[in-house]
Structures are given as C-alpha cells and as structure tokens.
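Milestone M4 deliverable, item 7.
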Amino acid sequence: MEPVSAQTETDSLLAHHISIAEYKFQPKSLILPASLIAVGAVGTAVDGMNDFHLIHRKDSVNQIHIDDYMEWGMLGWVFICDLMGKEKHSWIDQLCLVGLGEIINAGLTRGTKYLVNERRPDGGKYSFPSGHTANAFLGAHIAYKEFKDSNPWLAYSGYALGLFVAGSRIYNNRHWVADVIAGAGYGILAAELSYLIYFPIRNAIAEKINLRRDRKLLLSPVLNEQGGGLYFSYTF
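Output delivered:
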C-alpha cells in the first residue's frame, strides 16, 4: 500500500469543494416577458380584443387533451435535452431552477387569474393568463438558457412545443389569444426570476461551505525514503 502524502490529502480535501456557478443577470432579458404580458393584458382589457379579431370560434369542438400532459411534461424538457447536448449547469442546479420557477410561476399566474377573473371562451372562470402555456414556456425557457451557447437546436426546441400547447388551449376553447400570449410571458419571466434568485443564494452557500472545509485541522502521516513523520496543518 502506497503512503498517502500531505499534499495528496490536501488535494483530496480541495476536490470536495463545491464549485461556484457562473451567472450574470442581464436586465434586458426581462424585455421579452414584459412585452408579452403587456400585449396580453391590453388584449384582455380592451373589450372584444381578446382574440385580436383573428379567430372564428365554434360553439363546440372535439377537444384534444395532450396539452394537459405537456403542461407538466415541459417542466422536464431540460433534462431530456441534457441527454442530447452539453448543458450549462448541473442537473441538480436545473432541478432547483425548475422547482423554484414553478413556485414563482404558480404564484404569478394564479394570483393574476383571481385578480382579473376573466371569463373563458367556453364560459369558465379565470381565463387570464393561460397556466398551461406558462408552464410550457417556463420549461422551454430554462432549456433555452441552458443550451443557447452550446446547441441552438435544443435551445429553441422547447419553444416549438410551447407554441403547440398554446395553440391547443385556443383550439379547445379554453383560452383567448391574449391569455396564451401573456401565459408565455409569465413562464419566461418565472424562469428568469428563478435564475436571478437561485444562483446568488446557491453561490453564497457554496462559499460558506468551502470556507468551513478550508478551516480544518489536517493531520497526515508522511513516509518517504528518509524516514517518517506527522504533517500538521490548520488554516485560519
């Protein structure tokens, strides 16, 4: 059995340090979600403009229900993309981002739904904004942020799926166009806020843990050709 040197022991200790994730908030990233929410809000506020005079609705349709599954499935889209490309952050970070983003998204969309209390095209309550669309674009935007620098195809793939969810909500007479436009904005906003909130907290915790690990008493036997001894180290 080979002797373990003090340097090897120190290197092992440093190897267990938690990495500091690189993230810099860009205020311009809020322009898109704010614009989508504003357009949706204007469409809802102006009587008769919910559909922007683009859609002729039928009294009844044969509804498709895949949107109910994709609403939640899209929250896992970034992990599917992880299997096909090089992500920016670890899957643990991504899991925390998705969880935090969903909490923010649920709070924003549900709060707005009860505040606005817009009628759905089929007569139901709480139409504005579309929660299904918001969840879909939350997952899509996290995938975009994780892969935009390494794989543009994966980065934009989630948006296509998000648009399908939005279109299905309109087709099913469950939402107005204004609802899904705002829903996309809410989802993107929730993703951006999750990054803005998560990484400063994560890095602060990592720095504290690393500092605590550095301040450890290190005792290690040292064996070499000249003899043996005991290595003593304590970092203040």
